[in-house]
Amino acid sequence: MNLRERFDFALHNLRYRQLRTWLTVLGIVVGIASIIILVGLAGGLKASVEKKLSQFDASTIIIMPTNLEKSGFTGFSSITPTTGKLYERDYLKVKNVEGVKSITRIINNRAPVAYRGKIISSSIYAVEPEVFKETASFTVGEGRFLTDADRGAAVLGYSVAHDSFDEEINVGSTIEVAGRKYQVVGILEKTGSSFTQFDNAIFIQFDEGRTIFSDLLLPNEVSSMRAVVAPGYDVGEVRDRIEQVLLNTHKVHEEDKDFSVIDSTTIGEQVNSIINILTIFLGAVAIISLLVGAIGVSNTMFMAVMERTHEIGVLKAIGATKGDILLTFLIESGIIGFVGGIIGIILGIMFSVILGIFGVETMITPELVVASSLFAFAVGMAAGLIPAKNASDVPAIEALRYE
């Protein structure tokens, strides 16, 4: 038989037992669909992170009172300080580091915010406006941002203004932060960034923040600092200089440091490390489900060999070689894998589209689709290899006697 005849013969045998064939195909479908969905989710997460990182100013360095290498990193809003503290003396030391163009202190904590009878807890950023604007990526949608001369003024994140209260807050409205009245002078555009959470923040003057949070902070303590690297200087080198200055100021060694000095490269490395681990885990889960489907293919092919033992004897009697028998059964198992792969890819893409409608980003590349279809075919062939080998080794005389 030529290859076309073997292919037609394999299709005929698969159609003969359609229910069993489709149940076997279903196992491959589930496995491939899982690979498409889970790997697509991991790819979408990575693309989303890279997009948000691209908005992070490459010349900005952030100093925080926590060791990210020990605490982990999923975004600035999720970091809980350890025993580390930053003080005004740290600010003055970093300000004089070669390559630092400007630096700003930040006080960040939560406080009750009241508007027209409703009270919420919101993240408050007390900042030095002019320098802070250089270090943070945001756009003012309504009104303006703070100036160094402002007192009793506040700028709201998009969600605070539009989603947090029963009524939307407009520029010119008055809110209360920790019992103090503030006039809203600006509202930020929606950022959607999980790194900064500016959508849920309120910005006020630095000195006013120190007053509000005086009971929560030590004298001269600051929550974090942001520095801008001067043009012509390498960000990594300036970051290392700042880190060394703080190690000396805090009198700690590298392995015991109670602070972090991070830039866009540091953030990218931390986040990509987490995403790579997640991708491996999700891929492993998907492959396990595919292996379960492969066991189903192997079981089906073993049953097919037993049921068609007499047929194998007839084929050998009319001149079929061991290679012919082996290839015939391998084609059958390969078809099961390939068909299951194609259906699984289609269902995986459909499910990913549905996730996209609900705002979950996925990324399915042509390479993933091609690799999944080839992998499904290879798994089918591999699962059918031992049954096919058994079929080819059946002696013709014994096979003809088999009923």
What does this entry look like structurally?
- Helix content is 55%, strand content 17%.
- It is α+β, with helices and mostly antiparallel strands and 403 residues long.
- The protein folds into 2 domains: 3-50 and 271-401, no CATH class; 59-262, no CATH class.
- A 6-stranded mixed barrel has the order 3-4-9-6-8-7. A two-stranded antiparallel sheet has the order 2-10.
- A hairpin with a 2-residue loop joins strand 3 and strand 4 (118-127).
- Helix 2 (18-54) packs antiparallel against helix 9 and helix 2 packs across helix 11 (322-357).
In a few lines, what is going on in this structure?
By secondary structure, the protein is an alpha+beta fold. The chain is built from 13 helices and 12 strands.
What count of domains describes the coordinates?
A: 2
Gap between N and C termini: 25 Å
Radius of gyration: 32 Å
Query: Class by helix and strand content?
Result: alpha+beta
**SSE run:** HHEHEHEEHEEHEEEHEEHEHHHHH
What sort of overall outline do the alpha carbons produce when their principal axes are compared? elongated
Number of helices: 13
| % residues in beta strands | 15-25%
Indicate the percent of residues in helices: 40-55%
- Order of strands across the main sheet: 3-4-9-6-8-7
- If you average the pLDDT, what whole number results? 85
Low-confidence stretches: 72-82
- Main β-sheet description: 6 strands, mixed, barrel
**Beta strand count:** 12
